[in-house]
Amino acid sequence: MRTRKHTTPLLSALAASMLCASLTAAVSAHGAFEKYDTDGWGQPIISVLMQGLAHRDSFWEPGGADAQDNSLLLASSQSNTGEIPDVLAGQREAAISGSVSGRQQDAGAAGSANGSGGSGNQQSPEAVGSGGQPGAGAAGSANPSGTAVPQQDSAPTGSGNNAASNPGSPQHTDTAVPGGSSHDAGSVVPDTTPGAEQNPDAAAQAEPMQYAFTEVPREYFDDALFIGDSRVTGVELYSGWDNLTYYAEGGMTVYSMFQSKTAQVDGQTLTIEEALRKRSFGKIYLEIGINEMGTGTVDSFMEAYEAAVDYLRELQPDAILYVCGIMYVEQSKSESDPIFNNPAIQERNDRIAALADGENIFYLDINEVVTDETGNLNPDYTWDEVHLLGKYDVIWLEYFSSHGIVKDS
User: Fold this and answer.
1) Within 10 Å of residue 393's Cβ, how many Cβ atoms?
2) Pairing of strands 320-324, 361-364
């Protein structure tokens, strides 16, 4: 008995459709879908058609430049492995920049989130950053994955350089500037410091004037006042310089100096405080501190000393104030006396010197000219290991003459 072979209509239709699809794929593989065809052997020809339809390409459109652009877009959507995809190799940078933006015609849209500027090496002069600054750099320059990454432009505004051409540039977000506006991280914000453009030296002028010591003539001391203890009394008596004013008294201390009645003004004997309210001086020299050595501590002494300096500045604001270091004692006394010794004197002198500001208050150290090679008071200059011999008292004023401050110059 003969067996009849029946052909299933569904199977025949499927075979016919597969044949048509294969023919269509073969034709389109050399036309609109040629970008999906690799070697023709490594994958079925029908997969070319499937890839084209999956990307919604029309198989009736011809291949060519548009197909090349779409292949670049496909490559830019791949994960970033740190290597340039093969499909990008050998392509012109301008073509890459234009293709990633979806054939965008406006070159001024640098910084768009779809990855325009995929190579990051080219930028139109009209490109603007996300902050609206013209030529501010490629704020949206893309990495090889096509993802826009804000970059810091290392070049001045409008240079067109961006972080893609400078791999060392740090990546960060937009920075806020005073006034509430946000600027592209690659833009250069103008200096808004008041007077910065009009007066470049404004910052320098804000610094206090610093004066240097200079040699001054004897007439410099015509309006000078010398305040102090018995050491100043010796200068008044034996120096021969009578053009200075002296407010001096043996045993004077910083604690009581303003109440000391040692000032002669218009035939009257006044306290130093009263005299300073009646007379004005151009320079004031303060030499005090030896009598305070056995009283209180260094800190308590300096507290009173600083208060005295402040009060002098208040009473005589226009005067140049010289604070004088305490003169040393002779070596034998320094080594034997637990109170009046040179290390203790130097400790206080260091604190006094710190009060000088180089503008209104200046420190003078008489020990520079009255000590010997041991660093102690020269024994040839003293009669009691503490005070100078009368013939050497002029050394004080000679030292002052070589350390004058002349503000007018």
Assistant:
1) 22
2) parallel
How far is it, in rounded angstroms, from Cα 364 to Cα 326?
10
Residue 159 DSSP one-character state: S
C-alpha atoms less than 13 angstroms from C-alpha of 3 in its C-beta half-sphere: 2
Which position has the token pair 């103008």?
Answer: 190
| Alpha-carbon radius of gyration of the chain | 46
Whether the Cβ atoms of residue 168 and residue 156 lie closer than 8 Å to each other: no
Which residues 6+ apart lie within 8 Å of 123 measured at CB? 110, 117, 137, 138, 141, 160, 162
Tens of pLDDT, residue by residue over 277-293, are 999 999 999 999 999 99
φ/ψ bin of 224: left (φ > 0), alpha (ψ from -120 to 50), beta (otherwise): beta
Task: Give pTM, 2 decimals.
Answer: 0.53
The helix or strand, by DSSP H or E, that contains position 394, with its residue range, turns out to be helix 394-401
**Predicted confidence (pLDDT) per residue in 135-174, tens digit:** 433 333 334 334 343 444 444 443 344 433 344 444 444 4
- Run of H or E including 247: strand 245-248
| Residue that has been written with the tokens 């990051």 in this structure | 120
Give 355: exposed, middle or buried? Use CB within 10 Å, 0-12, 13-18, 19+: middle
